[in-house]
Design a protein that fits this description.
By secondary structure, the protein is α+β, with helices and mostly antiparallel strands. 34% of the residues lie in helices and 18% in strands. It is built from eight helices and seven strands; from the N terminus they run βαββααααβαααβββ. Strands 1, 2, 3, 4, 5, 6 and 7 form a seven-stranded mixed β-sheet that branches.
Length: 250
């Protein structure tokens, strides 16, 4: 489950330093054009675009082995967490169910799959975790189609597939409103699972995990039109940490 975070007035676009039109105008050729050396941690050293570059306003980034530009502060978001977030959304990009499962907490896979089968299956068809994954793949492609067309109204005869290739990911600490805490937001994130699994799932996971990471992220991807589009903007997600690895729940 990905909880949509309200974007404050300060966050005008994916990055507060540039306008939405500037992000859309940055061509896809800039996304993976540089040849960089990837370190043992799976990312390059920090790259700062030249001041006259179209990308300068987006800030510094690292490049992963897959060529995706990652915008994050490793003091806030550990590199392994950032790479797990990349793998998670690469699974949707490639419709790779096994990769998707590898990013999920194993207990969640078992419990939530059972819930889906028992709740949504019928005599003709079983609805399970893979069915849910395929629906999410379709939903993200619909976001891309809407971005390409510039409208939420997509006609039934539209020929776009919505297929995409991720070019940039940004992750940052969630901006807390007055009275909010990361712990409180994390507990709220688990309310749905507490209900559908009929247990205090938050406490169950917290007793097994080394901790939680609650943060906000953004995804930019190249569509079939050859242009970059923001397909996910200002959304929050939770990962549980265990032995230096990270796992999510949706």
């Amino acid at each position: 489950m990905l909880n949509i975070k309200k974007i404050t007035a300060v966050l005008v676009c994916m990055f507060c330093l540039v306008s939405c039109s500037e992000v859309d105008d940055i061509s896809s050729r800039n996304s993976v054009s540089q040849t960089v050396s990837i370190g043992e941690n799976g990312v390059s050293d920090i790259i700062t675009p030249a001041e006259d570059s179209e990308e300068y306003g987006l800030g510094s980034y690292r490049v992963s082995e897959s060529g995706i530009k990652l915008y994050y502060e490793d003091s806030d978001i550990p590199t392994e967490l950032m790479l797990t977030l990349e793998r998670y959304f690469t699974a949707f990009q490639n419709r790779d169910f096994e990769l998707y499962k590898s990013c999920l907490a194993s207990d969640y896979v078992e419990r939530y799959n059972k819930y889906l089968v028992e709740t949504y299956s019928n005599d003709d068809e079983e609805y399970n975790l893979k069915s849910s994954f395929e629906l999410q793949c379709s939903n993200i492609r619909n976001y891309m189609i809407q971005e390409i067309l510039g409208t939420y109204e997509v006609s039934e005869d539209d020929k776009h597939t919505g297929d995409f290739k991720i070019t940039r990911i940004r992750a940052e600490n969630t901006e807390l409103l007055e009275g909010e805490t990361n712990e409180g937001l994390t507990k709220s994130f688990f309310e749905y699972l507490n209900e559908v699994l009929d247990m205090d799932y938050y406490t169950y996971i917290s007793e097994q995990a080394d901790g939680f990471r609650y943060f906000t992220f953004y995804i930019i991807a190249e569509g079939e039109d050859g242009e970059e589009h923001r397909i996910i903007s200002g959304m929050d997600i939770v990962f549980a940490e265990k032995d230096g690895k990270y796992y999510t729940f949706g």
